[in-house]
Every structure is written in structure tokens, then in C-alpha cells.
Amino acid sequence: MTVTYDYTGKSVLVTGGTKGIGAGIARAFREAGADVTVCARTPAPSGGMRFVRADVRAADDVERLIAGFERLDVVVNNAGGTPHAPLAGTSPRLHARVIELNLTAPLLVSQYAYPLLAESGGAIVMIGSASGARPSPGTSAYGAAKAGLHHLARCLAAEWAPLVRVNTVIVGLADTGAETGEAADHYGGHGDERIGAAVPAGRMATPADVAQACLWLAAPGYVTGAQVRVDGGGEIPAWSYLARRPDLASDDIS
After folding, report:
1. Which UniProt keyword terms apply here (predicted)?
2. Is the Cβ–Cβ distance between 37 and 73 less than 8 Å?
3. Do 175 and 206 form a contact (C-beta atoms < 8 A)?
4. Of 29, 107, 213, 225, which has the fewest beta carbons less than 10 angstroms from its beta carbon?
């Protein structure tokens, strides 16, 4: 059963809303009747949504972005991401920029949006990551930033209640290019199917799965400070996978 929501007359901002999970979230709110604004550094086909070019790591850009709203009911802090960058031997500036995008930026957007959200009794949804809740080798700065984002959301939920609700969607392994085949390119051939097999639900999350959680958390209600995991049950531990696939285990493992 699919739950439907009515956001007619509501103003929604989705950061990083031109591709991947962000585009799926923006589309879901638009289909629910909302007036949707997406911001990013590069535009995409509008689909009836307003686009604002902005770098959410820059306070001046964020201030200009929020100044363009007369009313704001929902902010989805989705902009984020990282390249694979092991900490040793890579530029400190790269890791600083990763933290700026995944932690400082949502803090800035939330801070500037607060007066409008408080006036409307609105909601903020942070898009978190399983990388912030478990070891994230090769993306340590990203994992640390997402862990910080999860905690930031809980702090703001307590600080801004009852005027503004703040919740987090913690996304697990996700096919962020379900419509374009980007995931297959990223994981290599049928790698996306093999990665999906590591999820108890049997597949990776899609942008639509994440969007459904956002629609629920942004709707008027009591829930604030919550962390909703959209991960299909998590990730099957390697030892469990090997136990079910003895053909993959080596006799040399002790």
C-alpha cells in the first residue's frame, strides 16, 4: 500500500535536488502538490520546479537563496557526497570540503531558514547516511560528517521544538541512478545486483524509497529528533554471507 500526501500550498526547498536522491525527493513533493524549489550548482530540467543556482557551502549563497522565499514549510538538506579518498596521501583541503558540504552546509541552510520555518510551523529533513553509523573506509571524512549531521539534527530538534521539527533519514546502500543506469556504471556491470544481494531486502534503496520517508517526516505531526533508516534492513555481515556461501570461504581462514 502506498500512502499519499497532500502538500498543496506548501513551499518546499530541496538542496542538491537536480539529480539522484535529491531529484527523486523533489519530484515526490511536486507530485504531492507542493511548490518546490531545488538548488544546486548545475541546473536540470525543471519539471515544474523552480531552480536556484547556489553553493550551499557559501553563507552568502545560502542567504541569497533563503531571501528568495516569502514562505517556507519544508527544507530537505540533501546536498552531499564524496569521492573515494583514503585519508592517507590525499589533500587535507579535499577532506575539509567534504565536511563543509555534508555538515557545515546543512547547518547553514537550517540556520538561515529557521525564521521562515518557525513562522509556518515547518520541518527540516536531513539526508543522512549509513556511513555515519558504521565504519566508512575510504570515505572517512564523509562518514564523520554524516555522523555529525545525525547529531546536529537531534540537537536542533531539541533546540527548536515546538516551532520547527527536525528529523533524519539515514540512507543505506542506494541506487542513486536507477533511471539512468549510473549505479551499474559505478558498481561495474552487474555489480549493483551483487551489492543489492548484501541487503536483507534483496536490493538497494531507490530515490523513491527515500522520498517516501521524507514525505512522512515533513508532514505535520509529533515526531521530531527521529532517525528513520531507509536501508532495507541494513547490510548482511560478511561472516553471515560466508556462512551461507561456503564455496566463497577459504580453507586458510582461521
Report:
1. Oxidoreductase
2. no
3. yes
4. 225
Say whether 142 is catalytic.
yes
131-161: string of b/e by CB count within 10 Å (b at 16+)? Answer: bbbeebeebbbbbbbbbbbbebbbebbeebe
- Domain of residue 99 covers 11-248
Give residue 241's pLDDT: 58
pLDDT < 70 regions, the chain: 1-2, 45, 177-192, 238-254
Task: Give the H or E element holding residue 233.
Answer: none
Q: What is the pLDDT of residue 232?
A: 84
Q: Which of 142, 187, 222, 241 is catalytic?
A: 142
CATH number at residue 224: 3.40.50.720
17 located within any domain: yes
Q: What's the number of domains the chain is made of?
A: 1
Looking from the CA of 113 toward its CB, the CA atoms found within 13 Å total: 33
Q: Residue 176's pLDDT is what? A: 81
Residue 5 domain-assigned?
Answer: no
The values of phi and psi at residue 76, to 5°, are: -110, 110
In a domain, 194, yes or no: yes
Question: pTM here?
Answer: 0.88
Q: Calculate ∠ Cα 92-147-185, nearest 5°.
A: 70
pLDDT tens, 72-89?
999 999 999 999 999 998
Q: Please check whether residue 213 lies inside any domain of the structure.
A: yes
